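Weekly structure sync, notes
Attendees: PL, DS, HV (note-taker this week)

Item 1: TetR/AcrR family transcriptional regulator
DS walked through the input record. Source organism listed as Trebonia kvetii. Sequence as pasted into the shared doc:
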Amino acid sequence: MSHRFRAVKVVFPAVTVAEVRVNVHRVTGIRQGAGRPRLSSVVRQAGSARDQILDAAAEMFVTQGYHAASTRRIAEVVGVKQASLYYHFSSKQDILAALLAGTVKPSLSFATRLARSGEPPNVQLYALTYFDVSLLCTGKWNIGALYSLPELRAPEFEEFARDRRALQRAFARRVAAGVKAGIFRVGSLETTSALLFALDESVITLRANGVRIDNTLPATVAAGALRLLECRDQDVATAEVEAKRLLALAPEIRA
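Item 1 (cont.): predicted structure, written out as tokens:
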């Protein structure tokens, strides 16, 4: 007796990705998304797992020392498996590189916007100094205190070193432009530009020494930078007013 088999076309109902995620959550209790599920409830206030890892690492690096921290310990503090941490960062060096990038890349981006603004050098320099000081002061942890780590000479941190040099050149270009326009008066352009950048980053030392930082510091340092360049009071006052408009267009600084 022969048997015949007839092909049957089975049609499954259309299901969206969102519905799949909901169904997985109903069955397993795990919400689907970027990264892996946390071991425990959220410990830190930061929004994403990546932000929480950066926050925990920053606290350890700054308060306990870079060598005292480990990816295992960082994962424990955040409440995730170490494997989940590696979903976001390949190593402890990778975490540090991300933290350092956050202290220079926003200012570099703002410097690029300023270059297209057409504003005079005193206004641009005031705005750039104000923004960079705000960036270095606003962070929850004083990441700039890690700039002196000998580990930063390793190839993994070359991008940060390159960005920081680029930021220093952005300051120097505005000093040179101001000298050319007769707004600034300096002796050695190279030395004065380096001194100006050191003034900008001096807020890192202030924080490390426990000096109370308030919201007037960015304006104080920015005005001080112009006076270091022997900028006339009138040009300083103009820069203070005009820079407010430019700063309103600056990228948001995350605390």
